[in-house]
Fold:
Amino acid sequence: MNAVSYEELHRRLAPEIEAARAAALALLDPAAPAVREGVAALLEHRTFTYPLSVLPLIVHAAETGDPRPALPLAVVHDLWWTSACCLDDLADSQGACPAGDLGQSEALLATVLAGTTLPLLVVQAQPVPEPVRALLAAEVVKCSIGAAEGQLRDLRGQVRGATRASVTEVYLGKSGAPYSMITAMAALLAGADGRRVALWREFGDVFGVLWQLFNDQEDILSGRGEDLRNGTVTYLLACALEDPAPGAAAHLTSLHRAATHSAPARTELTRLLLAPDVLSRYEQDLDAFRHRAHRVLDDLGGDDAHLPLLRDLVDRSSRMLLRKGEG
Structure:
């Protein structure tokens, strides 16, 4: 199945992904219709602009030439991110995750089940040897722990002393963990050996950081400013905190604190974040992460029809979108 982009592959396989989703929901006990309806409501009302659920399909195809055996993992990806986004909404005090007629408590219960229980049920249903099934389940558990660690660090928002290295560690948890989970799972399902699984896990880690940097840029360009409103310590802020001018870091820290409730503070902080020297540091690191992702793909090799989709996805996610004064 040749495709020129990951979006095209998603369009071609969308009906099969939907069928795999229905099969996953059917795994829930018939005696628990409320659970099934709640999870279905979450999936219906949480749509994603970028169809990255095809990532495990491409990884599997890079190993075997065939994306379709990984269709259940596309569902695991959607389940995990639906749950994570809803929990993020609640953590940011934005009210309940929008999910039809579900109340806040109902949505929270459905969110927990969508992010943990149902992915494990999907894994258990796979027709693979028990050792492989156990490894797949372990990836889900490890991801939950790693992502929770990253999210907790993110919520604490320790801006004082934040560095690019410390923010990278946070990003490796809250975004790298789920992507490394799904790429490693796809490789395991494809029968890859331990070395290749480790490389796919590394690719997922780096891609997760790249995707978080992409999201950070979009948050500024869209005018939403959710990161500033929530007090998030972003990579761009860490780049700004390295300003050698006397008092610059203290001023940025003060603005960052005020930005959670002050529009003028958000405007001023955004102006400083878009300074040329800050953007230069950011772009250099963005390039470094992109080159690292490509190096991992070089080491991996694989099916010639699908590796280009991964390279294209890396390049799209690592574009430098911000320019001076665009916030």
Notes: The chain has a mean pLDDT of 91. The radius of gyration is 20 Å. The domain at 6-317 is CATH 1.10.600.10 (Farnesyl Diphosphate Synthase). The CA atoms of residues 25 and 254 lie 47 Å apart.
